[in-house]
């Protein structure tokens, strides 16, 4: 683990605050787009099994009563904090991070650097996407591949447009010349590409495969 990673880990752990001892609320259908719930079973030093659950509230922030992320042990809140956060647990930490499109990271990282993705609640949006992947693996793979292509096309188009705008600046144009993007999309095509990109990013978030392109 390099120095940057160690500093990042310490900073994320420092964001974890003591919980209030409240009980974990059942997952409800109407919370499909506002809440994510993940779990993992771990052994403590005495060899006893405990279920750790991470409750993510997508609409919460530092000003709300509910914390953006809370850690429950056997149904009781023990830690909470703003994301990104790392919750200390037996044998390692649980790293939690979100993006505009959902959960970006929900991994148990052991002290020996082994990583394990937590299991999503079956009724959550991540759980429903995982069930779809198990039932229709080929269709799911096609959706993922198409989504990746959409993100790549969107990124390429955005970069070309950005370079064109930069080279229109007089000082830049004098030294480097001007660049005209080979991709000139009409307004409706830009809207469709943006919408498709958002859907692709959302799908990758549901599968916990968010990338810097999606973010």
In short:
The chain is of the alpha+beta class and 215 residues long. The protein is 38% helix and 27% strand. A six-stranded antiparallel beta sheet has the order 1-5-4-3-2-10. A four-stranded antiparallel beta sheet has the order 6-7-8-9.
Largest sheet: 6 strands, antiparallel
Strand fraction equals 25-35%
Q: Note the total helix count.
A: 5
What class would the helix/strand composition place it in? alpha+beta
What strand order characterises the main sheet? 1-5-4-3-2-10
Unreliable spans are: none
Helix percentage range: 25-40%
Distance between the ends: 25 Å
Order of helices and strands: HEEEEEEEEEEHHHH
Comma- or semicolon-separated keywords:
215 residues, globular, 10 strands, 5 helices, alpha+beta
Structure description:
The chain is α+β, with helices and mostly antiparallel strands. It has 5 helices and 10 strands, in the order αββββββββββαααα. A hairpin with a 2-residue loop joins β7 (92-99) and β8. The longest helix has 31 residues, at 137-167. The chain is globular, with a radius of gyration of 21 Å.
Topology diagram in text:
Blueprint: H1 3-14, E1 17-18, E2 35-43, E3 49-57, E4 69-73, E5 76-81, E6 85-89, E7 92-99, E8 102-110, E9 115-117, E10 119-120, H2 125-135, H3 137-167, H4 170-176, H5 187-206
Antiparallel strand pairs: 1-5, 2-3, 2-10, 3-4, 4-5, 6-7, 7-8, 8-9
């Amino acid at each position: 683990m390099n120095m940057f990673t160690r500093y990042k880990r310490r900073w994320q752990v420092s964001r974890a605050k003591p919980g209030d001892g409240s009980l974990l609320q059942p997952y409800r259908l109407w919370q499909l787009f506002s809440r994510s719930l993940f779990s993992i079973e771990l052994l403590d030093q005495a060899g006893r099994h405990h279920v750790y659950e991470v409750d993510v509230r997508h609409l919460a922030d530092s000003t709300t009563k509910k914390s953006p992320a809370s850690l429950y042990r056997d149904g009781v809140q023990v830690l909470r904090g703003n994301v990104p956060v790392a919750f200390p647990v037996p044998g390692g930490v649980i790293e939690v991070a979100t993006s505009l499109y959902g959960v970006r990271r929900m991994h148990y990282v052991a002290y020996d650097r082994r990583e394990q993705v937590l299991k999503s609640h079956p009724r959550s949006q991540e759980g429903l996407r995982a069930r779809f992947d198990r039932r229709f693996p080929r269709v799911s793979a096609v959706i993922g591949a198409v989504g990746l292509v959409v993100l790549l096309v969107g990124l390429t188009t955005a970069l070309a447009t950005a370079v064109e705008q930069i080279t229109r600046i007089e000082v830049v144009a004098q030294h480097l010349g001007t660049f005209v993007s080979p991709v000139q999309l009409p307004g409706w095509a830009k809207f469709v590409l943006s919408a498709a990109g958002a859907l692709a990013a959302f799908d990758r978030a549901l599968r916990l495969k968010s990338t810097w392109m999606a973010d």
